[in-house]
Amino acid sequence: MSGWVYLIRNGDLHKIGITRNLHQRMRQLKPDEIVSVLETKDFKSLEKSLHKRYKTSRIPQTEYFRLTKSQRIDCKKKLLQDKYKSNCFFQKAINRLFVLIWLFSFATIIFVLSNLIGEKELTFYIFLECLIDSFAWTALFSWLFSVRALLISSRRALTVFEECKDRSERSLIFVILALISTLSLLLLNSLKVFFN
Question: Do both 66 and 162 map to the same domain?
């Protein structure tokens, strides 16, 4: 489960902390400035590494630091670098691809089992039809997911620009996967015609 690492400022003190609910935590702390935030699955170890990195500026027994300007910039850059790593387009594409592979596999199993129950014999032609049906459903769901990605918020604390970018990236990934599924469907249909 993911959480948030945040760098906030109150007066001349900075706090590096973690939370699972960023909005609630910011309401509790009421910072003068939210310098930087990062949502990540590795939030506990990232917080520890940042505390270790700035230990000379740490107020003992607290999560508060008297950061210099250069340390503040460095910490902000560190959070932005990790933000880039955790929001990598390629990683998002792989995650969505696994969803569609699962959907395709599930659909194929259902179609094969329904044909086995009805036909009692699985020929190459029937298996090809099952694959065609599976690709058709995968393509349909890819198109639906691409529209959903545009309409549904990421539910993260992003600027308007970052939110638009995130939504368009998620949608684009599903559009690409839908096109691949559609092309595979066309290829299998031509293969079906060839064997018919």
Answer: no
Distance CA 90, CA 116 (A): 38
Distance CA 160, CA 122 (A): 53
Residues 80 and 93 placed together within one structural domain of the fold? no
- Residue 90 is predicted with a pLDDT of 72
pLDDT at res. 119: 66
Ranges under pLDDT 50 in the chain: 84
Amino acid 149: pLDDT: 87
Q: Of 52, 86, 120, which closes a domain?
A: 86
Amino acid identity for residue 120 in this structure:
K
Going from the C-alpha of 173 to that of each of 6, 87, 147, 194, the distances in angstroms are: 29, 13, 11, 32
The whole-number pLDDT of residue 158 equals 60
Are 42 and 74 within one domain? yes
Same domain, 10 and 57: yes
